[in-house]
Design brief:
Two copies of one chain form a homodimer.
Chain A (H helix, E strand, L loop, with lengths): L7 H5 L19 H10 L2 H9 L6 H17 L6 H27 L13 H6 L7
Helix pairs in contact in A: 2-4
Organism (chains A, B): Camelina sativa
Protein name (chains A, B): Protein LATERAL ORGAN BOUNDARIES-like
Family (chains A, B): Belongs to the LOB domain-containing protein family.
């Protein structure tokens, strides 16, 4: 964060990167796309507000999750990373069904199952996904 | 979208809801929180831009996925809905491991497995998750 190399955010916003810049630790000049995506999707002022409301040790994870969401939204403007959530939820349901069937087969032959088994549909209760594709 | 009941977006932004308002079909006055969250996280102008770049039939899904992301970010400012992705990925890996073990048990006793079985780690290749918690 020297005067010679402004962070990617200040470079993008064409402003001087001052000591203590809230973006500098998380947007190094070598990764210009990271800030460009975050700026396009969330806006610099929303991200500044969000980071200021967090404790310093939480900010790196927050920036990385925002960058992940922003990149997903740039790649898929309709679903963004919610597309990944839907896909993963379908995969969890399919795997749970297959596992239940395999465990039922093992039980049918009097064989104990290797895993304790977890109740299905935990995900639905935790995340309350909304129906996206009607 | 009559003059008597502006959509939730125009009400929030304190502006007149004109016929053809891009927000009106997706932000009914009965759901004020939906727009409030989307506005707080993405900003009204970013959402307007995004919707204008989509085809009309894509906009409802886009708004719903934005509302889902925004609500997740309001509830968890550090991880947002990326927390759900990490959780689901761990669940997929665990279920895949348990299923592999159950199928191995069935194969060990010469029993055919009820499911064809899918190669593991497909998710990692598709979504390229970044390590969020170091």
């Amino acid at each position: 964060n020297s005067y010679n190399s402004p962070c990617a955010a200040c470079k993008f916003l064409r402003r001087k990167c001052m000591p203590g810049c809230i973006f500098a630790p998380y947007f190094p000049p070598e990764e210009p796309h990271k800030f460009a995506n975050v700026h396009k999707i969330f806006g610099a002022s929303n991200v500044t507000k969000l980071l200021n409301e967090l404790l310093p040790h939480q900010r790196e994870d927050a920036v990385n999750s925002l960058a992940y969401e922003a990149e997903a939204r740039v790649r898929d403007p309709v679903y963004g990373c919610v597309g990944a959530i839907s896909y993963l939820q379908r995969q969890v349901h399919r795997l749970q069904k297959e596992l239940d069937a395999a465990n039922a087969d093992l039980a049918h032959y009097g064989l104990s199952t290797s895993a304790g088994g977890t109740p299905g549909n935990v995900v639905d209760l935790v995340f309350q996904p909304q129906p996206l594709q009607s």
